[in-house]
Amino acid sequence: MNSIKFSSILLLLLAGIALIGAVKVPITLPESVLPNNLKAVNGGSHCAACTLSLTLVQQYSFIHEKSIQETLDEICTFFPSKAGSVCTFLVDLFGSQIIYYFDKYNHADDVCHALNICTSPECRLFPNNSPNYFNEEHVHQEYDPIDPKVQENPWQWIQELINIWTSEHLPIDDLDKDKFSPMDTFRGSNWRGKDCDDTDANIRPGTLENLSEPNIDWNCNGIFGVNQQQQSYEDLLCGNSGAIGTIVSGDSAGAHFSLPPQWFNASEINSTTYAGIVDILEDEVDWPMRSAYTGYVPSTAQYSVQSVYLQMRERNLCNHRDYQNLGVNGANSGGTASKVMFSLNRNQTHDKPALFFLELIGNDVCSGHHTLDTQTTTEEFEKNILTILQYLDTQLPMGSHVVFVGLAQGGILWDSLWNRTHPIGTTYENVYNFLNCLQVSPCWGWMNPNETIRDATSQRAVDLSAVYDVIIKNYNFTHFDMQYYDFPFAAINQEWLAQGGQTWELIEPVDGFHPNQITNYLMGKYFFDQLSQDHPDWLGDINPNNNIIQSLFGNQGGY
Ligand SMILES: *[C@@H]1O[C@H](CO)[C@@H](O)[C@H](O)[C@H]1NC(C)=O
Ligand SMILES: *[C@@H]1O[C@H](CO)[C@@H](O)[C@H](O)[C@H]1NC(C)=O
Ligand SMILES: *[C@@H]1O[C@H](CO)[C@@H](O)[C@H](O)[C@H]1NC(C)=O
Ligand SMILES: *[C@@H]1O[C@H](CO)[C@@H](O)[C@H](O)[C@H]1NC(C)=O
Ligand SMILES: *[C@@H]1O[C@H](CO)[C@@H](O)[C@H](O)[C@H]1NC(C)=O
Ligand SMILES: *[C@@H]1O[C@H](CO)[C@@H](O)[C@H](O)[C@H]1NC(C)=O
Ligand SMILES: *[C@@H]1O[C@H](CO)[C@@H](O)[C@H](O)[C@H]1NC(C)=O
């Protein structure tokens, strides 16, 4: 499973880890903690990280008429505490060489080659004839690392990051080991309803009321206590309400992967640009709290959030906090069957049923390899999905529902983006070709100038999606029924175009690959509307006690 390759290559900060993996430096970070794809593999992800970050450094120095040294120092101060320490560490390590090579060369591509981080001269982000950002006024300076400025030792944090990015995708802060956490990042409440008691595994979102002790909020939905007749509020207001949780297992699109575009646009970089980077990395660069399936944060002037969970909660306030997002960047059907699905926590006898989305929209047909042979076959796909379903049948409570989301049709990515400008200042075609050349593209098959290859990738995606219908026709499971929906990008795009929009406005600008915030919002509505038409009973009734719950329990403890 190439689970973190995609995110890792584009990250400025993890550029740091990549570089540390590339050179032997005397720090106490054992080689064994580095994930495989951050170890030196043909220069690929290290080269991408080096080239992207030094391109930004160079552009920033040009825009602000500063020397490379001033720029390196200044940009490091833009990163908060631990991240700033990593930045400073790297500048201390490489600063003088970077300055030296920027004296000689016009492009970060050449500097990263000179630093021996990039090894294939034909792989360039800026082809040789590109305009350059060489600063004519620039005077050579020696880098003087007398004052290392490192304030905080970041290695413990980096190890935690690596663990959460590569291991079981379970909350780090979870005393009672119920897979729910009082913390928000590190697979905490941004991903799964917040644990209101982290010392007792019987107290967790989604569980049924324990009538013997009504003053405890067993399921953390903020409804507890007794009325004057000593009747349990949970029982009175939620007991027969048909409450049901919302769960998604899937890939980076399910978890809502999104790299902030301002991180990669030198004109926008300022002292606040990287302020949120620590939380963002601790959430694996995903935004499950704004996703189509489990989003819960309120919309703001900047972005709109709608999700299946929010609409389920609106129907029945007893569903508060009953969501789990098991999305993992890079997950495909094999990885989900062998690993990711075990991060689910639903107790078949003591929890409420769940509306479970299985969304694997691309990684079975996508990789950085220059071949279609690594794609999952329909036989393998069917086997993997059946393994997942058989496991779910041992975990999901009776009365649950499983919604399959088909694979994307990624040809549209190339068609709508290839000649547009990426935030890094070159075309998407150049960015895609650079990543393909390094074999670190998230999807060589779709982000590819060759139409034959894009079409072959789309055909396999269609074939795999068709497996779901075969499964629905040929299998029954005890604890859930099943429904298939196409990945709704085409439907959403059609409506968007009809309203005068452009397709590129629906795609993540930095990776040129994932559905963005607008699309997540529209998908959240789309799935709920579809289910309202096709299976209104799956959504549970509208709870007639919602007003009472609201007046007695307010925001029900928030998130
Ligand atoms: C389900 O929950 C009950 C009570 O919390 C517990 O006793 C039981 O072991 C759980 N079952 C599983 C499979 O975890
Ligand atoms: C219900 O609560 C009682 C009293 O606190 C406790 O002994 C029992 O284990 C609980 N049962 C479950 C299933 O959590
Ligand atoms: C930094 O840039 C953002 C836009 O990207 C802007 O909203 C913000 O005010 C700027 N902050 C400072 C301190 O200049
Ligand atoms: C980009 O390419 C599309 C065809 O894929 C074409 O319709 C459009 O005019 C081109 N835009 C620019 C700015 O060249
Ligand atoms: C980069 O930021 C500038 C300033 O905000 C903006 O005008 C430009 O469109 C951005 N570039 C891209 C490709 O988004
Ligand atoms: C596109 O890919 C196909 C299949 O690999 C190959 O036969 C063809 O020559 C390629 N076309 C171009 C223009 O490179
Ligand atoms: C599954 O259950 C439905 C409804 O009970 C039944 O009509 C169908 O024949 C069953 N299919 C299989 C493959 O057992």
UniProtKB/TrEMBL annotation:
InterPro entries named in the record: AOAH, AOAH_Saposin_N, GDSL, Saposin-like, SaposinB_dom, SGNH_hydro_sf
Entry-linked Pfam families: Lipase_GDSL, Saposin
Keyword Signal applies: yes
Keywords: Disulfide bond, Signal
Signal peptide extent: 1-22
One MF term in the entry's GO annotations: calcium ion binding
An individual GO BP term: lipopolysaccharide catabolic process
Domain named Saposin B-type: residues: 43-122
Protein name as catalogued: Saposin B-type domain-containing protein
Biological classification of the source: Eukaryota, Amoebozoa, Evosea, Eumycetozoa, Dictyostelia
